[in-house]
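Q: Study each token:
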Amino acid sequence: VDALKAFYGQAFKAPELPSGSLEAMSKSDVYAKLKSATKDATTKGEYHKGKHAHQILKLISPAKVRSACPHCERLFSSVLQHIAN
């Protein structure tokens, strides 16, 4: 949410996003919520994965994602363990 706020600014409507685990939602529901939360973003336009994801990823805190998403934490841990070995 912080990265989306930073990217979209005041046009971003955080309350439109679901509370709770994103991992429990379908991809289509997540994308629909992102589009709804960003539909009034006149300078950048509503969320579009191909246009915006790479820019938003630069703003995301990996520590926040890891703490909020158990599957992501498991992925990061596995990759880091593999690199260490």
About this structure: The longest helix spans residues 70-84. Residues 72 and 78 are 10 Å apart (CA to CA).
